[in-house]
Design a protein that fits this description.
Shape: globular
Bound molecules: iron/sulfur cluster
CATH topology of the largest domain: Rossmann fold
Oligomer: single chain
Number of helices: 11
Largest sheet: 8 strands, mixed
CATH architecture of the largest domain: 3-Layer(aba) Sandwich
CATH superfamily of the largest domain: P-loop containing nucleotide triphosphate hydrolases
Helix content: 25-40%
Order of helices and strands: HEEEHEEHEHHHHEHEHEEHHEEEE
Distance between the termini: 66 Å
Structural class: alpha/beta
CATH class of the largest domain: Alpha Beta
Length: 351
């Protein structure tokens, strides 16, 4: 290479790394009708302005209590349900507004693993045919021998014996069925996998095995994972970053280490305080949240968490806090981080 070319390369502006998935101000509002023929009487604000991105080879976990909208985010990204507003980009291409015919080839790149593999695997098909379906649907193999070879390779990847291809889903344990679910997600060559409570129904030791498998597959194949879970203890083992959702909105996003060691939102503090410590004799301050999660049909004004927040003050009931950077890569939506605001209530108890 001549020196001129080297000079030109050295002076070139760094190429910005584009995330694999970008979600911008995503909304999903479900209409409610009071009768069969009546008009819309209200909306369920299930997802109400959610933004995040996932890099290639990265895991982002979306956590929060049941009903916070995290699974709806996953299904809306996949277009299993249509978004009300916002944008979803895969590798820089908008996919939220694509017609079905143009979306189809991109579906190959985005796959899902659901919580209950038994209900998501066709009980009448052998494993070979379950895994062959996406391969043939997307035209990824020619002829039976080629399909069989690919199915065998997938079973190797998820560490199931090759003779599994002759058996039916009911012949496997829950953990093995989830491995089949993961193999099916890998079958079309996906680079983004949405794991929707994918390990929640499994025993603790099986959970750990599946989480290890997902991590190994990520290293091997460079997968990006959106890991949707209510279980922060398991999230800690798999994720790079965490986004915390409450009542349809993200309230905190950070690298795993920063979020687990120094959460910046009172809701995250409460969630983390409920995670069991590895040492059963150790004590931690437990934040007990009082009150129920408000209805997503009529979210509270101001900060949506104010009805349960131990630190809420007058402004929280009126002004909605924006999600903003508190530290590099660490965003939180809470007025406590504004200049001059002091916490008034510790509201924590040793348990
Ligand atoms: Fe609590 Fe107010 Fe912060 Fe909301 S803005 S989390 S109510 S302190």
């Amino acid at each position: 290479m001549n020196s001129g070319m080297m000079q030109a390369q050295n002076n070139a502006a760094p190429v910005a790394k584009r995330p694999l998935l970008e979600v911008n101000d995503l909304k999903k509002h479900f209409p409610i009708r009071s009768g069969f023929l009546s008009g819309i009487s209200a909306y369920v604000y299930a997802v109400d302005g959610v933004s995040f991105s996932i890099d290639k080879g990265e895991t982002l976990s979306l956590v929060g209590e049941s009903g916070c909208g995290k699974s709806t985010v996953g299904r809306t990204i996949l277009r299993l349900i249509e978004p009300t507003a916002g944008q979803v980009l895969l590798d820089g291409q908008r996919i939220d507004d694509l017609p079905a015919s143009q979306l189809r080839p991109l579906r190959r790149r985005m796959q899902v693993v659901f919580q209950d593999p038994f209900s998501s695997l066709n009980p009448r098909l052998r494993v070979r045919d379950i895994l062959a379906e996406p391969i043939t649907n997307f035209g990824l193999a020619s002829g039976k021998a080629d399909v069989d070879a690919r199915v065998a390779e997938l079973l190797d990847k998820v560490r199931l014996p090759r003779d599994a291809m002759k058996r039916y889903p009911h012949e496997f344990s829950g953990g093995q069925r989830q491995r089949i679910g993961i193999a099916r997600a890998l079958a079309p060559g996906a680079d983004l996998i949405i794991c929707d409570e994918a390990v929640s129904a499994l025993d603790v030791s099986v959970k750990a095995q599946i989480v290890n498998l997902l991590s190994d597959l990520q290293d091997e194949l460079g997968l990006s994972l959106l890991f949707i879970s209510h279980d922060l203890a398991i999230v800690e083992h798999i994720t790079h970053r965490v986004a915390v959702m409450y009542l349809g909105k993200i309230v905190e996003v950070a690298e795993k280490r920063a979020l687990f060691s120094a959460p910046k939102h009172p809701y995250t503090e409460a969630l983390l305080s409920a995670v069991p410590l590895p040492d059963p004799t150790a004590k931690r301050e437990r934040v007990i949240l009082t009150g129920d999660v408000p209805s997503p049909i009529k979210p509270p004004p101001g900060c949506r968490f104010h009805t349960r927040c131990p630190h809420a003050f007058d402004r929280c009931r009126i002004d909605e806090p924006p999600l903003k950077a508190i530290a590099p890569g660490h965003l939180a939506a809470c007025h406590l981080h504004d200049a001059g605001v002091m916490r008034t209530t510790p509201a924590a108890a040793l348990v």
